[in-house]
Amino acid sequence: MIGATRNSVLLYDRRAPQYILKELSALASVVGIAIVESVSIRNGSSRTRISDFKLNELKKKLIESNSDIVLLEPELFPSQKIAIMKKTGAEVIDRTMLLLEVFERNAGSREAKLQIEVAKHKHELPLLRELINRSKRGELPGFMSGGTYAIDRHYRQIRKEIAKSREELDKIRKRRAFLRERRKEIGLPSIAIVGYANAGKTSLFNFMTGSNRTVGPIPFTTISPKVSRHRSLPIALVDTVGFVLNVPPEIVEAFYGTLEEIGEAGGMIFVIDISEEEEVIREQMIQAASILSNLDSIYKPISIAANKIDVAKGLEKEKKMREMERLERDLFPNKLGIFPISALRGEGVDKLEGSIWRALNQKQEYLG
């Protein structure tokens, strides 16, 4: 898929936020898919049957735009996906699978590849189960080659691969747990750098550690957590995988390494791209607080880095800062402040570092 561009038609819920559709388009371009047409639906219930009228409209646009992919937003049930596949003959890719394709493209470590493989297989299983059930009931004559036997064999093979990958992942995670314990033994606390894709987490990590890790406009350049010592302070910094807005459950599997590192960290730096629209910033802060609560990490010291101040505009920037301060008060119990920075130029990073360093020392004094 990488290298050549394939055309697609987007099937989307007309109530979907614009930033989700914008993100979907950016993710699709990463894996060589261009959205050239769209069809809107009103997805009142996820189990609602897609009307024949909409399916015909979809098929017509696929033919007219020379497309062979249907991109989905929102997520649909397997029965709805099968209806689209049967009617159009096109490949159906939803947001979860698209995210996993992007993750797979950027995965470098063995752990990242295994995590993504497990997540992709888990996402595929419900569709296969529905195909097997329908095939056994004789509802899919001439649909997919090989029939029930081939689908059933593929289903069992995937279950075996998931089990095998999880065994290997367990060994890798034990090794990482050992390294975390070693850091604790030598008195090197860790700080997790968290945030959403393209906020500038890796740029900040590079500046604070003197590293030279790859950064760029492609979403999810970082796909497994990386640890390095601060260039002058006795702390370890952890660069984590970017959070995802409206995260699908299967994606959590691919984030396991990041979730572990956040859970073990002594504090966090939450990087936000202040050049984003205010609505996006607000949603990111609300959803990040929810993620950290689910990880039992919401009471850890947290400094918020309002990154890209060199890009954000004056009056808009001030308005966004006020809204961020309001949300910080409401959402983060152990807040350390909001620090305008440019991770690329290093502007404001010294004050950010000072805040988290003081918090760590106070915690150490408290623990004795």
Summarize the structure.
This protein is 52% helix and 16% strand. It has helices at residues 18-30, 52-64, 78-88, 95-106, 110-136, 147-185, 201-209, 251-254, 256-264, 278-294, 314-331, 349-367; strands at 6-13, 33-41, 69-73, 91-94, 190-195, 226-229, 236-239, 267-273, 302-307, 335-340.
Outline the fold blueprint.
Layout: E1 6-13, H1 18-30, E2 33-41, H2 52-64, E3 69-73, H3 78-88, E4 91-94, H4 95-106, H5 110-136, H6 147-185, E5 190-195, H7 201-209, E6 226-229, E7 236-239, H8 251-254, H9 256-264, E8 267-273, H10 278-294, E9 302-307, H11 314-331, E10 335-340, H12 349-367
Parallel strand pairs: 1-2, 1-3, 3-4, 5-7, 5-8, 8-9, 9-10
Antiparallel strand pairs: 6-7
Describe the structure.
The N and C termini lie far apart (56 Å). This protein has helices spanning 18-30, 52-64, 78-88, 95-106, 110-136, 147-185, 201-209, 251-254, 256-264, 278-294, 314-331, 349-367, and strands at 6-13, 33-41, 69-73, 91-94, 190-195, 226-229, 236-239, 267-273, 302-307, 335-340. It is globular, with a radius of gyration of 23 Å. The chain is of the alpha/beta class. The chain has a 6-stranded mixed sheet, sandwiched between helices. The mean pLDDT is 86. The longest helix is centred in the middle third of the chain and has 39 residues, at 147-185.
